[in-house]
Amino acid sequence: MNKLILFCLSLLMSTSVSLASEPITLKQVTSGEFAAEGVSGINPIKGTDQYARVSTDGKRVEQYSFKTGKLTSVLFDVNHTQGEQIKDFDGYSMSPDGTRMLISTKREKVYRRSYKAVFYIYTIKSRKLEKLSDGGPQQCPVWSPDGLQVAFVRDNNIFLVKLLYDNAESQVTKDGKFNEVINGIPDWVNEEEFEFNQALTFNADGTMLCWLKYDEKNVGQYSLQMYKGSNPEQKDYSVYPGAYSYKYPKAGQDNSKMSAWSYDIKSHRTQKLQVPLDADGYMPRIVPTPNADKILVYTMPRHQDALNLYAVNPRSTVAHLLLKESVAKYVKEETMVNLKVGDNYILVPSDRDGYNHIYVYNHNGQMLRKVAPGNYDITDVYGMDETTGDIYYQAAALNPHDRQIYVAHKNGKTERLTRQEGWNSAVFSGDYKYFINTWSDYNTPYVYTTRSNNGNVIATNVDNKKLREKTEKYGWVKKEPFSFTTSEGVKLDGWMVKPANFDASRKYPVIMFQYSGPGNQQVVNSWSAGSMGQGGAYDMYLAQQGFIVVCVDGRGTGGRGAEFEKCTYQKLGDLESKDQVETALYLGTLPYVDKANIGIWGWSYGGFCTLMSMSEGRPVFKAGVAVAPPTSFRYYDTIYTERYMRTPQENPTGYDDCPISRASKLNGALLICHGSADDNVHPQNTFEYAEALVQADKDFKENIYTNRNHSIYGGNTRNHLLRQITQWFEEHLK
């Protein structure tokens, strides 16, 4: 009797909790209502314990102390300027000497990382605000080391402004032309896949300008058809559609021809730098060094299995090989992103020993030491304190799903600076005495703390307590980590979200979300885990609709060393789809899973893997949704695709195995969604795949979003998209 009473009380309490929880709406998910508060835009000031950031109201640039977290000064206030007056601003950059700022306004996005803006020069002491140029919007302005010159790009040409000569402006290059020649900024594919938007720098004493040039005249052109649409409305296309045409090199096709150049500011002499480069090779970076006679130019062969650093004299133009990073299959993109050049050192991340570690070189190219050997990946590099030789970094040393902050001392000893399991990331002060740590886990929103460089917490900046309370109000449930072993003996890890009123005696339909792309991770012990971020708000919404939501990282994903990550080389989609099918088969063995009603979805590479999995041959998926999917890597860009596949000419069989060739094997109800203005994964992918499905007599549904890019947002678009995904699974899995 007592057990029965306890059971009834327990049932009543769980029902009360369930009834008390407010339902999540899609509008809340898409509006960002569950977004965490953060400490964003932190820009450490070199050599100090201070940092600059934009104020919460967006009206000021403020300076704070890392140690105290307190405001120390206001560097810029949009309402208190002399000279020019502006109502608001988009961003800023400090001059090296800290006396001036570049203020950007009227920012207009170009591609993922590039934009045009109207820039102003602001002198902090006098509060004087003046336009950088009257010639039209600028791109990527860079300061000279002494803060007395600014170089920028306009209309594919480089311009120079001298502050000591009444902001006199001169044109450095004149051969720039849209869709033909680009100076000082990367072309589309280099920007997208090498993750940079600036290919222009001064040398150390500010006497020379150096840049990369992209000759894209022979690169194939892709045209995106544009319509009137709305949010924003394009009135020029009210009757007839228009087109945006740009250069986009597809796998196996011609790339831009690249070269490096220098300009002597005093003599006005322009010279081509003698950097050795294969005819179809890449130059992913150009960076200064503390030596005025030395600029570093990175090069890679088309196969991307080596990274060369050349030291180049910008006056003599002579280049010599400083160091070469050569690894099996391909050099990871993170190597370039995380490579750090200091005053006396170069930190090179490399997986040459099977795991990603840091190798320390001097400026003569001599390797000095290897940081933190072990069977785990270093995943971010924060830099070296050159006064002590201490190197600070992030690593997946505990397991592939957590991240901790470490310091490696010059004597070889390493110390862990963060203690709480979960996901930690850091921003260090310019003097490396302090850092702001961001921590979260699957079920806890971000907590920002200020710490000394030994890891001791000085203060808590943001704890997101209100968001935690809000998620409890809406019945957030915990993500449950799990692991299983496939029929091929591969151990895979994942997380699961169950409905709040979960009953183990019932059988639930399952929605699997994944990305599955090379080096990517979705199974991370972080608040970011989930299909749409915000603590998995959309996944929680689906759980409230009665679904179990599951995510598993298959082979090819990151955090587990080179062998696991690079095993998909030259056969993208094959092993990844097998692992998603194996996941569905494993889930089908669980007593609370309805194995006849399992769905899968993903975006971009996740959309590709969705299609590959639904046509893998084993009919385990009842339904699927592919958003903006590549359907043949012959249609995708050179740098990304060939890094993992080589060219179609070299690897035809690898390219032939794709969703289009598997169209006749498609099993399950399929919804495809694509933006008509997707400059990244062209709508061509969906159109050609749809045609293959038609000819294979396969039913499917297709949603095209007018004028939307790869992110598919704007106005009510994202809300509509998620509702379509939800309704598709409601219709076919219940």
Structural write-up:
The chain has 734 residues and is α+β, with helices and mostly antiparallel strands. Among the domains are: 42-171, TolB, C-terminal domain (Neuraminidase, 6 Propeller); 172-218 and 254-326, no CATH class; 478-525 and 534-733, Alpha/Beta hydrolase fold, catalytic domain (Rossmann fold, 3-Layer(aba) Sandwich). The chain is built from 13 helices and 44 strands. The protein has an eight-stranded mixed β-sheet, with helices on both faces. It has a five-stranded mixed β-sheet with strand order 5-9-8-7-6, with no helix packed on it. Strands 14, 15, 16, 19 and 20 form a five-stranded antiparallel β-sheet that branches. It is globular, with a radius of gyration of 27 Å.
Q: Count the strands?
A: 44
List low-pLDDT spans: 1-19
The secondary structure category is alpha+beta
What is the approximate shape?
globular
Q: Please report which band the strand proportion falls in: under 5%, 5-15%, 15-25%, 25-35%, 35-45% or over 45%.
A: 25-35%
Looking at CATH, the homologous superfamily of the domain at 478-525 and 534-733 is Alpha/Beta hydrolase fold, catalytic domain
How many helical stretches? 13
Give the C-alpha Rg. 27 Å
Spatial arrangement of strands, main beta sheet = 37-38-40-39-41-42-43-44
Give the distance, in angstroms, between the N- and C-terminal Cα atoms: 37 Å
CATH topology of the domain at 478-525 and 534-733: Rossmann fold
**Fraction of residues in helices?**
10-25%
Label the CATH architecture of the domain at 478-525 and 534-733: 3-Layer(aba) Sandwich
